[in-house]
Structure formats: structure tokens, C-alpha cells
Amino acid sequence: MQPIQPSAPNQAIKPPGGRIDVQVMTQTGPGTLAGRYMRRFWQPALLSEELVSGRAMPVRIMGEDLTIYRGEDGVAYAVASRCAHRGTQLSVGFVEGNRIRCLYHGWQYDGSGQCVERPAERDPHACGNIRIRSYPVVEYLGLVLVYLGEGNAPAPLSFPEFAAEGVREASFYERGCNYFQNVENGVDEVHIAFTHRQSLFQVLNYSVPEMGAQETKYGLVQLAKRSDGKVNQAHFMMPNMLTFTYPASNDPAVTGWALYLSWRVPIDDTRHKTFIVEHFNVKADDVEGFRARRQARRESIAALQPRAQVSAAILAGKAHLMDYVDRPDYLHLGDDVTQRAQGIVQDRSAERLGRSDVAIVMLRRLWARDLATIESGGEPTAWEYPTSVPRPTGA
């Protein structure tokens, strides 16, 4: 399982001493190098179910504020966060047909960002070149995705495995630390044996895995070999997607392992959201029962003390993770604690990596290679996302 080493990045993001400057990758605001890179890809902004027809939502992605609304035609539109007139937040306004009207003085914009009416002016429809920025939007797998980059948006994503017969769910969670800590966590299967020793993943914990990684056309595949020779795989799709299979639950309606696909999306440099799409193979005669049990689980979690508050108590030494082993979201709580325990934005300058971190090192090199190319004025890797990937169950 020796990794395939990509070419070294430019010195621009590799300071003296030869270490990759991961700090560059943690900063994604407008104009930053990593921000310019991330904006070349579709990024989830909302769950489709959050965007009600005739209503607007404020959204912050990578330090950039947007207004996303659903028109009467059912289509989602994304425009700038503020009115061009006096700078009022547009999401508090009115969605009328397929347009949005500012709450303050009634200026109205269409989905392309063009101002189409200024009610208090002598000629209300003489709006000339008054325009706010608009963004391409697609909806897929229960997610509203936006394109924040320049030029034409890339082709829409296609993952047929997640559209197959069965039950698909889309969800998200917010975490109070930099997104890149969660990106790296996704290719760090060693942590499962410790952070998730009591969880759905405990079927993998009969040994600590030997880690490997290989570069692919879409990013990399993490290889986790256990003592019996079985190899579990997780597929990282550049720049911030992760897909794998996992033992979904002990629900009697579920057969086999579930499919998982996620995006780690910065809100800003100190917070991020993870958008998740899961696909479950469910017995046809128990689909409604399965959905009801999943909904009951979500409601039980919502009734508990918020995960962020529990994490804060654990980090402050007022509690321990093992005190919460009976929480339905114990798995996510473990990740929340460990990633926030690294610091809001991890200082990697003093870290001591080992052989088990081979996938993390490769991930950083892939990122560094593309960032260096962009910085020098070139085009980064044209990553090719597969319609399916190998899915060994590992254990």
C-alpha cells in the first residue's frame, strides 16, 4: 500500500524547511488563494427542504454573504446579500413571483441580479445598469449548491449510486472550527479506534489499521488495512468531498452498509458546515417504518443539550466524552470534541506526523500542487469525479 507521490508544490506555499504551509489552505475568504480554488467547484449552501417557496434565506459561505430564495416557479436563485440602494439585507425582504424586493424601499431584483424596479423614482422601471451579483444554482440529492467562482460553472455533479432505489437523506451539521481540520479527519481512519471506540464504527475496531493512500483521477483513496488483511476504503474527492460506506445501524429494515457523501464547507475561517447525503438499502415493506424511526432519532437529538455546548463543557474539563456514550449523536460528538480540541484553527507548525498519516500528507500535497499552479497563473488539476467507486465493506 505504498502511496503514489504527486509532484512537489511550488515554493510559494512551501516555506523554508520544506514543510507545506497548510495555513494557506485554512483561509478561504474572497481573494485568498484557497478561496479562489474552492470557488471553482459547486458548494452546498442549504438543504433543499430549508428553502421554502416564496421565502429567502441569508447564507454565508467562505466569508461571503449571499441571499438565496425560491421563486414561485420552484427554482432556487442566489444573489448578493444586500440591496444596491442603501445596503439593506435582502433576505428580510419579499419574494414576489421569481423576484426579490427589498424591505426598506422596495427595490426589486430578478434572479440574474438585475434591478427591475425602483418604486419611488419618477420612472420606476428605468433601472439602467443597476445590478447586484448573482450566482449559478443547482439542486441535487436534496442539496442547494452554488457556484461562487468566475466564468462558467462546471458541469453539474452526478453520483448515480445515491439516486438508486432505497432511502436517501440529506442533512448538515455546523462545527466551531476551521473546515480543513474536518477535511483531514476524513482520511484519518486511525482515529476511529479511539474517538469512535463505542459507535457504529466499532465493528472496525478489532485492530488499529495500517494506513496507505493512492492518488486517483478524483483525488485520493485512503486504504486502511487491518490485522486480518481486509482493507477498508474512503475516497476523497478534491477539494472537499468525502465518500465511503459504513455500517448504518442495527435497524432491522437496513440491509448492507450505507453510502455516505459529504462536503466540508467553510462558513468563515473559524466555522464550517458539513453537508451529508446518505443512501440506505431498506427492505421495501418497511420503508415508512424506517423513515419514522429516523425522524424519531432526529427529534430525540434535537431535544438534548446542543452538541456545541456539550463539547465546550468537555473541553473545559467539566465533563468527559464517555459521560455521553448513550447520546444518539455520540459519534458526531466525538469528532466535534477532537477537532475543536485542536484549536479553532489548528496550529500545525509543531505537529509530529507519523507513517499512519500518509493519507493526510498526500491530501496536503494534492492541495499544495493545485494552489501553487493557481498562484503561478496556471490551471489546476481537472479532477474527474467517478459515477461509482470501489466499495469494500472492510470488516
| Secondary-structure element string | HEEEEEEEEEEEEHHEEEEEEHHHH
Q: Determine the CATH topology of the largest domain.
A: Naphthalene 1,2-dioxygenase Alpha Subunit, Chain A, domain 1
Structural class: alpha+beta
The top-level CATH class of the largest domain is Alpha Beta
The 3D shape can be described as globular
Q: Distance N terminus to C terminus?
A: 18 Å
Low-confidence stretches: 1-12
Beta-strand percentage? 15-25%
Helix content: 10-25%
Using only CA atoms, what is the Rg?
A: 22 Å
The largest β sheet comes out as:
7 strands, antiparallel
| Total count of domains | 2
CATH architecture of the largest domain: Alpha-Beta Complex
* Strand neighbour order, sheet with most strands: 12-18-17-16-15-14-13
